[in-house]
Amino acid sequence: MPPEFERKVIALLLALPPGRVTTYGALAEQAGYPRHSRHVGRLLSHLPEGLSVPWFRVLGAGGRISRPGSEQADWQRLLLEEDGVELSTAGKVDLRRYGWPDAHFCSKKL
After folding, report:
1. What's phi and psi for 89, nearest 5 deg?
2. Would you say 84 and 17 are in contact if contact means Cβ atoms under 8 Å apart?
3. pLDDT per residue over 73-96, tens digit each?
4. Rounded to whole angstroms, how far apart are CA atoms 1 and 12?
């Protein structure tokens, strides 16, 4: 992916307000790279040391925490809850309530 992709994704992630979430696919689409959700995931899993971005606000399709049962998923759940986001016992977030931006999630079938 071009460096522009990384810059756009990071900028969008930094703009994501506390208490709101997005998905890998929505973030890719907002950055101008629809259908590149896996690239967003790869980017977030290899963030440079010391770069402080709210990676935990990015969820899998349908508002699910990726890799349920893992230590990272537990950490993500804790950070989301501290951020004011409610999760179901299955680790799912209601995108209609917490999704950002609203217009994107309202136009997509959930």
Report:
1. -65, -20
2. no
3. 899 999 999 999 999 988 899 999
4. 17
Give which of 59, 5, 53 is closest to 29, Cα–Cα. 5
Q: What is d(CA 40, CA 25) in angstroms, rounded to the nearest whole number?
A: 8
Q: What angle do CA 93, 22, 63 make, to 5 degrees?
A: 30
Which residues pair with residue 23 across a beta bridge?
Answer: 59
Average confidence (pLDDT) over 7-30: 94
User: For the CA atoms of 25, 102, 13, 82, what is the dihedral angle to 10 degrees?
Assistant: -110
Residue pLDDT, tens place only, 38-52: 999 999 998 888 888
